[in-house]
Design a protein that fits this description.
alpha+beta, 216 residues, 4 helices, three-stranded antiparallel β-sheet, six-stranded antiparallel β-sheet, 9 strands, elongated
Protein backbone atom coordinates (compact mmCIF):
# COMPACT_ATOMS: atom_id res chain seq x y z
CA UNK A 1 0.00 0.00 0.00
CA UNK A 2 1.30 3.48 -0.79
CA UNK A 3 2.05 5.48 2.34
CA UNK A 4 -0.32 8.43 2.74
CA UNK A 5 2.52 10.94 2.42
CA UNK A 6 3.42 9.54 -1.03
CA UNK A 7 -0.06 9.49 -2.51
CA UNK A 8 -0.56 12.04 -5.31
CA UNK A 9 -2.75 14.95 -4.31
CA UNK A 10 -6.23 14.88 -5.80
CA UNK A 11 -7.50 17.85 -7.71
CA UNK A 12 -10.33 19.53 -5.88
CA UNK A 13 -13.69 19.63 -7.62
CA UNK A 14 -13.76 23.41 -7.33
CA UNK A 15 -10.33 23.87 -8.92
CA UNK A 16 -10.53 25.22 -12.48
CA UNK A 17 -9.56 22.73 -15.18
CA UNK A 18 -6.42 23.47 -17.13
CA UNK A 19 -7.34 25.05 -20.45
CA UNK A 20 -5.56 24.38 -23.71
CA UNK A 21 -3.95 27.38 -25.32
CA UNK A 22 -6.09 28.79 -28.14
CA UNK A 23 -4.89 28.16 -31.68
CA UNK A 24 -3.18 31.01 -33.45
CA UNK A 25 -4.68 32.42 -36.64
CA UNK A 26 -2.05 30.62 -38.72
CA UNK A 27 -2.77 27.32 -36.97
CA UNK A 28 -6.50 27.69 -37.59
CA UNK A 29 -5.81 28.51 -41.23
CA UNK A 30 -3.61 25.40 -41.57
CA UNK A 31 -6.33 23.15 -40.13
CA UNK A 32 -9.04 24.63 -42.37
CA UNK A 33 -6.88 24.47 -45.50
CA UNK A 34 -6.19 20.79 -44.82
CA UNK A 35 -9.86 19.75 -44.88
CA UNK A 36 -10.25 19.92 -48.67
CA UNK A 37 -7.16 17.85 -49.56
CA UNK A 38 -8.08 15.22 -46.97
CA UNK A 39 -11.61 15.00 -48.35
CA UNK A 40 -10.35 14.69 -51.94
CA UNK A 41 -7.80 12.00 -51.03
CA UNK A 42 -10.38 9.96 -49.12
CA UNK A 43 -12.91 10.21 -51.97
CA UNK A 44 -10.25 9.18 -54.47
CA UNK A 45 -9.15 6.23 -52.39
CA UNK A 46 -12.68 4.90 -52.40
CA UNK A 47 -13.16 5.57 -56.11
CA UNK A 48 -16.22 7.76 -55.56
CA UNK A 49 -17.29 10.43 -58.02
CA UNK A 50 -18.61 13.76 -56.76
CA UNK A 51 -22.14 12.62 -57.60
CA UNK A 52 -21.74 9.30 -55.78
CA UNK A 53 -20.45 11.01 -52.64
CA UNK A 54 -23.25 13.56 -52.88
CA UNK A 55 -25.83 10.78 -52.90
CA UNK A 56 -24.23 9.10 -49.88
CA UNK A 57 -23.77 12.25 -47.82
CA UNK A 58 -26.72 14.48 -48.81
CA UNK A 59 -24.19 17.23 -49.63
CA UNK A 60 -24.40 18.73 -53.11
CA UNK A 61 -21.66 17.90 -55.66
CA UNK A 62 -20.97 21.62 -56.05
CA UNK A 63 -20.43 22.05 -52.30
CA UNK A 64 -18.13 19.02 -52.14
CA UNK A 65 -16.11 20.37 -55.07
CA UNK A 66 -15.77 23.79 -53.42
CA UNK A 67 -14.62 22.23 -50.14
CA UNK A 68 -12.03 20.11 -51.96
CA UNK A 69 -10.76 23.16 -53.85
CA UNK A 70 -10.57 25.21 -50.66
CA UNK A 71 -13.01 27.86 -51.89
CA UNK A 72 -15.61 27.07 -49.21
CA UNK A 73 -15.22 26.34 -45.51
CA UNK A 74 -17.61 23.50 -44.59
CA UNK A 75 -20.04 23.89 -41.72
CA UNK A 76 -20.00 21.38 -38.88
CA UNK A 77 -23.21 19.90 -40.33
CA UNK A 78 -21.50 19.32 -43.67
CA UNK A 79 -18.50 17.71 -41.99
CA UNK A 80 -20.79 15.45 -39.97
CA UNK A 81 -22.58 14.32 -43.14
CA UNK A 82 -19.32 13.67 -44.99
CA UNK A 83 -17.83 11.82 -42.03
CA UNK A 84 -20.94 9.63 -41.78
CA UNK A 85 -20.76 8.87 -45.51
CA UNK A 86 -17.16 7.70 -45.17
CA UNK A 87 -17.76 6.08 -41.77
CA UNK A 88 -14.91 8.03 -40.20
CA UNK A 89 -14.90 10.47 -37.26
CA UNK A 90 -15.10 14.20 -37.99
CA UNK A 91 -11.62 14.45 -36.48
CA UNK A 92 -10.31 12.65 -39.57
CA UNK A 93 -10.63 15.91 -41.50
CA UNK A 94 -9.02 18.18 -38.90
CA UNK A 95 -6.64 16.19 -36.70
CA UNK A 96 -2.98 17.10 -37.07
CA UNK A 97 -1.65 14.09 -35.22
CA UNK A 98 2.03 13.40 -35.66
CA UNK A 99 2.73 10.71 -38.20
CA UNK A 100 4.64 7.65 -36.94
CA UNK A 101 8.28 7.26 -37.93
CA UNK A 102 7.30 4.19 -39.94
CA UNK A 103 3.87 4.75 -41.51
CA UNK A 104 1.67 1.70 -41.13
CA UNK A 105 -2.04 0.95 -41.24
CA UNK A 106 -3.47 -2.22 -39.68
CA UNK A 107 -7.07 -3.10 -40.51
CA UNK A 108 -8.60 -5.97 -38.49
CA UNK A 109 -11.03 -8.09 -40.46
CA UNK A 110 -14.04 -7.03 -38.42
CA UNK A 111 -13.15 -3.32 -38.59
CA UNK A 112 -13.14 -2.81 -42.35
CA UNK A 113 -14.96 0.31 -43.47
CA UNK A 114 -17.77 -0.90 -45.71
CA UNK A 115 -19.46 1.17 -48.40
CA UNK A 116 -22.48 -0.04 -50.33
CA UNK A 117 -23.73 1.38 -53.63
CA UNK A 118 -27.19 3.00 -53.58
CA UNK A 119 -28.72 0.00 -55.39
CA UNK A 120 -26.95 -2.45 -53.08
CA UNK A 121 -25.24 -4.27 -55.97
CA UNK A 122 -21.67 -3.29 -55.02
CA UNK A 123 -20.23 -3.67 -51.51
CA UNK A 124 -16.67 -2.48 -50.89
CA UNK A 125 -14.81 -3.40 -47.70
CA UNK A 126 -11.74 -1.17 -47.50
CA UNK A 127 -8.44 -2.89 -46.64
CA UNK A 128 -6.18 0.13 -47.25
CA UNK A 129 -5.36 3.12 -45.07
CA UNK A 130 -7.85 5.97 -44.73
CA UNK A 131 -5.09 8.51 -44.23
CA UNK A 132 -1.33 8.87 -44.11
CA UNK A 133 1.34 8.95 -46.82
CA UNK A 134 -0.34 6.28 -48.94
CA UNK A 135 -1.77 6.46 -52.45
CA UNK A 136 -2.80 2.86 -53.12
CA UNK A 137 -6.42 1.99 -52.35
CA UNK A 138 -7.63 -1.57 -51.98
CA UNK A 139 -10.87 -3.27 -51.07
CA UNK A 140 -12.58 -6.62 -50.94
CA UNK A 141 -15.40 -5.90 -53.37
CA UNK A 142 -18.51 -8.03 -53.78
CA UNK A 143 -20.63 -7.67 -56.90
CA UNK A 144 -24.19 -8.96 -56.89
CA UNK A 145 -25.40 -11.06 -59.81
CA UNK A 146 -25.84 -8.80 -62.82
CA UNK A 147 -24.03 -5.81 -61.25
CA UNK A 148 -22.26 -3.56 -63.72
CA UNK A 149 -20.22 -0.38 -63.87
CA UNK A 150 -21.74 3.08 -64.15
CA UNK A 151 -20.60 5.93 -66.38
CA UNK A 152 -18.91 7.79 -63.49
CA UNK A 153 -16.69 4.77 -62.80
CA UNK A 154 -14.65 5.74 -65.88
CA UNK A 155 -13.65 9.22 -64.73
CA UNK A 156 -10.56 8.27 -62.72
CA UNK A 157 -7.05 7.88 -64.11
CA UNK A 158 -4.19 5.73 -62.87
CA UNK A 159 -3.83 1.97 -62.47
CA UNK A 160 -6.28 -0.75 -61.47
CA UNK A 161 -5.46 -4.32 -60.48
CA UNK A 162 -8.25 -6.87 -60.09
CA UNK A 163 -7.86 -10.34 -58.60
CA UNK A 164 -10.90 -12.61 -58.62
CA UNK A 165 -11.40 -14.56 -55.40
CA UNK A 166 -14.67 -16.18 -56.43
CA UNK A 167 -17.29 -15.88 -59.14
CA UNK A 168 -16.97 -14.35 -62.61
CA UNK A 169 -16.24 -10.91 -64.01
CA UNK A 170 -16.34 -9.53 -67.54
CA UNK A 171 -14.10 -6.50 -68.09
CA UNK A 172 -13.85 -4.53 -71.32
CA UNK A 173 -10.45 -2.91 -71.90
CA UNK A 174 -10.37 -0.86 -75.09
CA UNK A 175 -12.10 -3.04 -77.66
CA UNK A 176 -11.36 -6.37 -75.97
CA UNK A 177 -13.48 -8.10 -73.35
CA UNK A 178 -11.87 -10.39 -70.78
CA UNK A 179 -13.77 -13.03 -68.83
CA UNK A 180 -12.16 -13.64 -65.46
CA UNK A 181 -12.89 -16.39 -62.96
CA UNK A 182 -11.46 -17.39 -59.56
CA UNK A 183 -7.68 -17.04 -59.51
CA UNK A 184 -7.49 -14.72 -62.54
CA UNK A 185 -6.05 -11.19 -62.41
CA UNK A 186 -6.24 -8.14 -64.64
CA UNK A 187 -3.90 -5.13 -64.41
CA UNK A 188 -4.90 -2.12 -66.54
CA UNK A 189 -4.79 1.63 -66.86
CA UNK A 190 -7.91 2.76 -65.01
CA UNK A 191 -9.03 5.05 -67.82
CA UNK A 192 -8.85 2.11 -70.29
CA UNK A 193 -11.26 -0.01 -68.28
CA UNK A 194 -14.35 0.78 -70.34
CA UNK A 195 -16.80 -1.25 -68.29
CA UNK A 196 -17.16 -4.30 -66.08
CA UNK A 197 -20.05 -6.54 -65.10
CA UNK A 198 -20.89 -9.72 -63.26
CA UNK A 199 -22.55 -11.91 -65.92
CA UNK A 200 -23.29 -14.82 -63.63
CA UNK A 201 -26.25 -15.66 -61.41
CA UNK A 202 -24.19 -15.53 -58.21
CA UNK A 203 -22.05 -12.91 -56.51
CA UNK A 204 -18.43 -12.24 -57.40
CA UNK A 205 -15.73 -11.37 -54.87
CA UNK A 206 -12.72 -9.34 -56.01
CA UNK A 207 -9.57 -7.89 -54.47
CA UNK A 208 -9.78 -4.47 -56.13
CA UNK A 209 -6.71 -2.22 -56.03
CA UNK A 210 -6.29 1.25 -57.51
CA UNK A 211 -3.40 3.66 -57.72
CA UNK A 212 -4.45 7.17 -58.75
CA UNK A 213 -2.48 9.18 -61.25
CA UNK A 214 0.16 11.40 -59.70
CA UNK A 215 -0.42 15.04 -60.47
CA UNK A 216 2.34 17.58 -60.41
Amino acid sequence: MTPPAQRPARARDDEPAERAAPLSESEVSAVVSGIGPRLKVLRGRLGLSLQQLAERSDVSPAAIHKVEQGTMVPTITTLLKLAAAFQVPVAHFIDEADAPATPVSFTPRNERRVLTSPDGDVVRGSISADSGPFELTASITELAAGAQSAEEDRRATGETLLHIQSGTLEATVGEQTYRLSAGDSLHVRTEDLQQWRNPSSRSTKIVWMSLPERRG
